[in-house]
Write a structure and sequence with these properties.
five-stranded parallel beta sheet; alpha/beta; Cobalt-precorrin-4 Transmethylase, domain 1; five-stranded mixed beta sheet; elongated; 2 domains; 8 helices; homodimer
């Protein structure tokens, strides 16, 4: 088996929410490459991993991935691409040295994860590189577990969308779907409260801050929120039940 | 801490995809209660659990939960309710005896799981009963990992819906969302191929059969499917990338 990059979901925060597969891959890899949103920031994914496996003797490379800037467009796109290409070349060089590499990413690689930016940049340089994905527990699942609210049952329809849209899509989705999981809510609570109020859905909404972490907080009445909640906040709007 | 019912997501099939938290809870509980769709059927969730933990010495109660009949309506609804109430009373009786109970459920309790039917019936009888949910890896995450296709990136919108609708909702969702995860697809492949073809999305669709299980199969061209795939099949329709 050739040297492999494992893109590993760490789950939402509780180190016990890593899978056995994730832990086995982390134990096996001599190198961890982790993303940081800012040059002086900490990697949340790495801090979870450190609680789950012994990292003594591991080579840990914290690389700066300017993720947010891709969306808000304040950094030249070439600078973003260069950061990702640098990360991709770094990982490929490690694989060429015969080292397996772990890239832990918060939650699940499938859902709003940085892992795919790394993957795509690697595939552009070397489509034959060996990359495997190991699923993690999503913030959505963790919010559901914290509140005992299922996100879908029977024939129900579920939507997962960023709450940052200001066009018709947010309202349209809230009107059509049985359950809507709103991500990236921390900066738009007042706007959401207005919209959910207009749709008669405030009583059907719950916010979970830091789901699956030690300081998890469940807020059942969104109108009581006076300050922006933590970045790791998710709202479940469930019409039934 | 009072005796507790743990509703535990087993993930999609690979026993390594259980979380450490799930395994610790399973080890701790002296009784496993597991759902079976038919009186003579096997519990897939239990078969996964048996590969992950030593079940010698555990009391295993396989109860018949006539799940499917709730939706297709061929069984009197009272009979369904009675089966669930019986299960709820059985679990409550075990908790009263001071025993922790594990209820393993395929995938994640949040997403189309039988666990919530048990939970709701228990809450109706005893709202003070101690029930905890332990998240699992969803079929969606597992399909994403198998195909290296993210389900959402950046500002994308994701929908998860049963593919069995025959009204406008399926088409509408496929038109609006960036990624659509279609569940319960095995009986409606010809209908889906027609619809996806009309919307120009056949080339953007992939079916994963038994994701995360030993005999996982990825089908990139849905039109090549001549026989209904396995019940554990999911389609990801991703417009971008």
């Amino acid at each position: 088996m050739p040297s492999t990059l494992y893109i590993i979901g760490t789950g939402p925060g509780d180190p016990e929410l890593l899978t056995v597969k994730a832990i086995n891959a982390l134990k096996k890899c001599p190198v961890f490459v982790t993303p940081k949103g800012s040059p002086n920031g900490n990697s949340t994914a790495l801090s979870i991993v450190k609680q789950a496996v012994d990292t003594r003797g591991k080579e840990i490379m914290e690389l700066h991935f300017p993720m947010i800037k891709i969306h808000i467009g304040t950094m030249p796109i070439t600078e973003v691409r260069e950061a990702w290409q640098h990360a991709a070349r770094t990982v490929l060089s490690l694989l060429e040295q015969g080292k397996d590499v772990a890239f832990p990413t918060l939650g699940d690689p499938a859902v709003y994860s940085t892992g795919y930016y790394l993957y795509e940049n690697i595939m552009e340089i070397d489509p034959a590189a060996c990359v495997k994905f190991i699923s993690g527990i999503t913030a959505m699942s963790s919010c559901s577990a914290a509140t005992a609210i299922p996100v879908c049952l029977g024939d129900e329809m579920l939507a997962i969308i960023p709450a940052t849209f200001r066009d018709h899509r947010l309202r349209q989705t809230l009107e059509i779907f049985d359950t809507v999981v709103l991500m990236k809510v921390h900066k738009v609570i007042p706007h959401l409260c207005t919209l959910l109020g207009e749709l008669g859905l405030l009583g059907k909404s719950v916010l979970v801050e830091r789901a699956g972490m030690d300081n998890e907080r469940v807020i059942n009445d969104l109108t009581t929120i006076t300050e922006p909640p933590h970045y790791f906040s998710t709202i479940i709007v469930r019409k039934k039940g």
